[in-house]
Each structure stands twice: as C-alpha cells, then as structure tokens.
Write a structure and sequence with these properties.
This protein is mainly α. Helix 2 crosses helix 11, helix 9 crosses helix 15 and helix 13 crosses helix 15. The longest helix has 52 residues. The two termini are 29 Å apart.
C-alpha cells in the first residue's frame, strides 16, 4: 500500500504543533491553579508519583515501538492477516505488562513514605492517592492503547493529535474546575483516571470505524517473536537510560529535600521541557529526510549535511539557553512568586542542562537512522549507574544544584560522547575530532552569551510585572543573536550553512 506521505506529513506537522501548544499552555495553567488553591506540596506529590510510575513503565521496554516497526512491512504488502496477528500479540503483551506494573507498584507501597522527606498534607492519604495513580498507569495497558498503532502505521498522527487535543483539554480544564470548586486532590486525580479511559476508547472507536479489517486474531511465528525480542534489546537499554535521567532526579529530590522542593524542581523542569518541545518540532520535521538521505546518499554528503543542520540547531539552542538565563527568574517571579523560586545558580544550572540535552540531538537523528542502537548498550548502562550515583552523592552535598549538575555530567561525558564516538566509528568513519571541536565551541559560545545576558538582565528590574518580562525578552532576542553572528559571520561553515538554508527556503 502506498501512502500519501507528503500530505500526511503536512497535516501531521500542523496538528502536532497545535497539540504541542495545548500540552504546554494548559498544564501551565493547571499547575498555577494547583499551587494557588492547594499549595506546592500537592504539586510535588504529583511529580513524585509520576516519576515513580515512569520508572515502573520501564517494564514496557519499548515493546510498542518494536511492534509498530514490524507492522510497516505487512501494511506495504497488504498482509492483513499478519497485521491482525501482530495486533493480537500487541494486546496480549500489553495486558501482561499492565499486570506486572500493577504488581511492582503495589510492592513499593510499604516503602513509599521513605521516598518523602518531611511532612505530607494532612487532608490526604498518600497510599490511596498512589494507588489511584498506579491504576491510571495500568489502565492504558489493559484497555485499547494498542489500537493507536494502526493510526501510526497509516501516518495518521494528525488523528492522534486531534484526539489528544480533545482529551487533554478536557483533562486540564476538568482538573482546574474540580480544584477550584472542591479543593480536593482526590477529585483532581479522579479526573485523570476518567480521561485515561476516554483517551483509550476514542482512538479504538475511530480505528474500528475506519479500519474494520484489523481485529485481534491469529498468532505470529516463532521467528518473528525472536526478531521482535532482538530489536527490543537495544530499545530497552536506551529507554532505561532515559528513565533514569528524567525520573530518578525527582525521586531523589523528594527523598532528600521534601515535596515542596520537588514541586519547585518540576516547575523549572517543566519550563525546560516546554522549550525542548518547541525544538522537537524541528527534529521531527527533518527525521524522515535524514532517514531517506542515509539510505540513498554518501556518508560524505550526510556528514556535511549533519554539520550544516547542527550549526543552525546549535544556534537556536544557544539562543534559547540565553533566553532561559535572562527570563527564567522574572517569569518564575511573575508566575509563582519569590517563595517558590530557586537561586540564580540553580537557575543557570537548569539553563545549562537544557543546552547539553540539545547538544547531541542532530547527531542522534543520524544515529537512529543508521540503526546503531546495539553498539550503545554499555554507554546507556553506564549512564544509568553514573547518574544514580552522582545524583545521590552530589545531591547529598549540594542539594538541587548537585542533582542538576550530576545529570549534566552524565549527559555530556557518557551519553553525548558515547553516541558520537559510535556513529563516527561505524558510519561516518571520519570527522569525529572536528565534530567534537564544533560542539565544544558552541558550548563555549552559549555559556559566554548566557553570562553576558545574565549580567545585563539582572542589572535592572522594571518592576515585577509583565513589562519587565517583555523588555528582557527583547534583550534576549536581539543581543544573543548579534553576538553569535559576530562569532561566525566570517567563517566558512556559516557561509556554507547560509547558502544551504537560502536554497531550501527558495524551494
């Protein structure tokens, strides 16, 4: 079956952007209401439970990704029987995963209080709330999450985005309303449970209506099961690494510093993730093109293209880092107030955290397109171990600042350098030193620009309101880009990258 790839890509991008906007704006409003109506402890509790269950979700091991990958070929060959068998296998495994997550989650209950330092709100039972969060996580595996795979293979992510916009809007608006009207955190979580059910049912109804030929029946061969397990190995290790980086930080903050601190931590982390989500639109837009280029073009051309794309991406990343440094604190002051803010040093650590997360993004696109996951396994394992150890040690001595720095160190010295060495060894075959030099230069530039912006923005304060934020926003827009341009405008790389960009814009 031939799909309308250009048409699908266009509408997927449009609806994906709208969905991104909704999932950034509405959670921000709900977090604000939750802090105002109930307090930062409740936000911290939500962040802690979400982090614990994110760790438990590691049980999924990337199974859904592997199954979807296996569905593309039978779809192209119109092999409906095999697709139905894969869908049936998907359903069986997901239901087993749901049971495993529920069981593992229940085992944690006796140790739950040890993950929280200090007191919890008096009007709630943390065990009841935790079980509600646990049931919410398990529900997706027991219901119809597997049905969404049909939309994925048909390149109908626009449908998933539309459903996500609808259900997300209902979730966040519903949570805001019940918090304002009832001041009940139980009601807040109950809305989440209801929307999770709805988020499973709606895609299932759509798939049943428009793709009725796909029903759960039949079995896949032993060889196909083996192939899926092989692919899962690399995905599993990568997922473990990602989970350790994003989830364990919140758990350790809670264990060392308490719920209020984990709530503040996740407010800052939420802003970083929101900015990252905007940049994710860029990487998603070029992913298919990079995959095609890997298949058809020479490694020399791909290496040159990667340097050019990376140049513009790093420019944007350095600019966004300086914006975070200049606008983080004024925004937080306006949003949550002085009492729920970190020091400037921690804020700058978060800004650096954002940049090092971005430093390997373009290389990662080429890495994934080259299918080199297996070579990364020991680096991913090392990152997990190092991240946990450094979080514990530096978190104990330096608090939140130490935890953020710990994650930065593991990203740079294990994740980034490890992945870079692999792709340059096994695919590009040359250019590793030049690439590392390029990224070190960008790290230096981003740091210098951010420091300049910090001293400019802290030197004056035009009140506590929106005007101060807008004024500093203009400064963060103009000055960083001018400085970066001064660094590069005479370089050969800039001239090449500029010509490349102009040529594509004209197309």
């Amino acid at each position: 079956m031939r799909l309308e790839r250009s048409k699908n890509a266009k509408r997927n991008s449009i609806w994906g952007f709208i969905s991104n906007f909704i999932t950034i704006l509405l959670p921000f409003l709900v977090r604000t209401i939750l802090i105002e109506e109930l307090g930062a402890q409740y936000l911290g509790l939500s962040s802690l439970f979400t982090s614990i269950l994110t760790v438990l979700n590691i049980t999924e091991l990337g199974f859904g990704t592997a199954i979807v990958y296996m569905m593309y070929k039978p779809l192209a060959e119109d092999d409906t029987d095999l697709l139905c068998a894969l869908l049936n296998y998907y359903r069986k495994i997901y239901r087993m995963i749901g049971i495993v997550i529920l069981t593992a989650g229940l085992v944690i209950i006796p140790f739950l209080d040890r993950l929280i330092k200090g007191t919890v709100p008096e009007d709630i039972n943390i065990y009841i709330l935790y079980v509600m969060y646990l049931l919410n996580t398990s529900l997706s595996y027991w219901l119809f999450a597997y049905k969404a795979s049909i939309l994925t293979i048909y390149q109908r992510n626009d449908i998933k985005s539309k459903i996500g916009i609808f259900t997300s809007s209902m979730l966040y608006i519903g949570q805001a309303v019940v918090v304002i009207l009832t001041h009940s955190y139980y009601a807040y979580v109950a809305v989440l449970l209801c929307i999770t059910v709805l988020n499973n049912i709606v895609p299932a109804i759509y798939v049943k209506k428009y793709y009725p030929q796909y029903i759960c029946k039949g079995d896949i061969s032993a060889d196909l099961r083996k192939d899926i397990r092989t692919r899962l190995t690399g995905l599993m290790i990568t997922k473990i690494s990602a989970v350790s980086r994003n989830a364990f930080d919140s758990i350790i903050v809670s264990a060392f510093l308490g719920l209020v601190m984990v709530g503040i931590y996740n407010n800052y982390f939420y802003i970083i993730n929101s900015v990252s989500a905007m940049m994710l639109v860029l990487t998603n837009a070029i992913a298919a093109g990079i995959g095609n280029s890997i298949a058809y073009d020479s490694t020399e051309k791909n290496l040159q293209d990667m340097r050019i794309i990376n140049f513009w991406y790093m420019w944007i990343s350095a600019w966004f880092m300086s914006c975070l440094v200049g606008l983080f604190q004024p925004f937080m002051r306006l949003w949550v107030g002085e009492k729920l803010m970190f020091s400037d040093s921690i804020m700058m650590a978060f800004a650096l955290y954002f940049f090092v997360q971005k430093i390997g993004d373009i290389q990662a696109q080429y890495f994934d397109a080259s299918g080199l996951w297996w070579y990364r396994k020991w680096y991913s394992v090392s990152e997990v171990i190092a991240n946990i150890i450094l979080n514990l040690v530096l978190g104990y001595f330096f608090g939140v600042f130490g935890i953020v720095i710990a994650t930065i160190l593991t990203i740079v010295f294990i994740n980034f350098l490890g992945a870079s060495s692999i792709i340059f060894k096994h695919y590009f075959k040359k250019g590793f030193c030049r690439y590392i030099a390029d990224q070190l230069k960008w790290l230096t530039i981003a740091t210098v620009v951010s420091v300049i912006i910090y001293f400019i923005t802290v030197s004056f304060r035009l009140g506590n309101g929106l005007f101060d934020l807008i004024t500093k926003g203009l400064i963060c827009t103009v000055i960083p880009n001018c400085i970066i341009l001064l660094f590069y405008f005479r370089s050969k790389l800039f001239k090449t990258a500029y010509s490349w960009l102009v040529a594509r814009l004209r197309k």
